[in-house]
Amino acid sequence: MKKPNRAALLASLLFCCLFAHGSETNYQTEIIVEGLDNPWSVAFVSEREWLVAERSGSLRLITDGVLNSEPVAGVPEVLFAGQGGLAEVLLHPKFLENKLIYLSFAGTDSEQKKLNRLVVVRGQLEGNSLVSVETIFGSEPLRKTAAHYGARIRFMADGTLLITSGDGFNYREQAQTLDNHFGKMIRINDDGSIPNDNPFLSTPGALPEIWSYGHRNPQGLVIASDGTVFENEHGPMGGDELNIVEPGKNYGWPAITYGVDYSGAIISPFTEQAGMEQPIKYWVPSIAPSGMLLYRGDMFPEWQGDLFISALVPGDVRRLHMDGQSVISEDILWSEFGRIRHIGEAPDGSLILATDGSDGKLIRVTATGKLSEG
Amino acid sequence: MFKTIAAFLISVLIAMSCVALQTSVSNLLWLDSINMPITLSVIASMLASDLVGMSAAGAYPIIVVVFAGLLIAFTVAYLLSKFMNTGRRLLYALAGGTALFAIVVLMPLAFYNLDLIAGARTLLGKLCLILGGAIAGYYFGAQLSGGYDNEEA
To answer: Do A267 and B36 touch (CB under 8 A)?
Structure first.
């Protein structure tokens, strides 16, 4: 059992960042868990119990702020290489009844060991073990690269599951064709079956689980209470995007893009094209957007309805003040922690940030009260 | 010495131009295949942008990689030429091709199989780039030979 370093907690509280932002709530930050190996996502089982997926392949249980030294047993073996590894941990909407959790990860193919794919499994959490694990999605075709998996998953209001599947880096052009999973958003039922209202069910040659296409490496996914699907994706060098995704639509990658290749080459000279959707916001230069949160909590009433995007470069959180489906303004927050891999909302409305890397931390942002105007 | 340095720098530019040209052409062909509006001005703009961008504006300097690759390969070729009776054009062409082979085939192995030069993602693309290295080497060998191979002099 790794106990929290109380001295570090006290020090971080003493030196916490205290900002005034107009009339908004003050906040403080504190490091609540250390010693995580590449944390990628956090799921809140309850106020007391959290699950953290470490990209290196372990699922960790945190109880009352204390990290269980023993990883959750029964998690499938993952390919921890490049950008690959264990990614998302997500609770079923009826978790309290069925104890189902969903994991996404990079997995080596059982027959062709040099190839891998994005995999989504589900299993039941019993204590510190995952049992009855079954694969409900595996991306096709297999890839040789260990990059651009996407791997974010979220449940829609109708109980279906959205999965972001990245373009695999080397396979970007395939994001424009519907016979594969590169650069797609996938929609399946919670058991892996195909919903009967997916947009390409009757399209010849199209995979029936595809929901939208033309994506690059989507790692942020939020579904608003009105059903709006917000998605953010890494661009190449420049051209990170925030999109509102609708079924059957083409988001353009790599035919249109606001970025250029890492080599300095033009990927496409076009930024717009008929039949291809525009982002509601894009970033040049890149911020490397990873996780995304639509804040709904009561702890920060002024932030309700705003999007928070954790960014890897240079390392901060972008708060996007939203007016419905439009971005009104952007604030940069918490740039003192380095690369932020994930942002989540705890049951009490506090924000939880996960820092990237082998010495990953969870940082809690809580309210300290109100400031008067001016 | 000055002539050798100038010939080397020009050979780097030849190889770099081949890399940029191959990247531009492969991207343009794909864009055209999905009916994007490719015009002559788009082609000209993309060719120029890629040559400049891949030489000076990338996140990683491909021209430095090409420079280093050719420098090593030509140095080895020079040493081999002391012991071999092979024509310089052929020897340096092989060296240039080998340098580009190392860049487009071996370099991805260090980056989880990512082809950082997009044009090198296909076998045909790799062959084109290796040919570009060979052309650069052939030019360098020809300059060292003063226009003639050893055995022709």
So the answer is: no
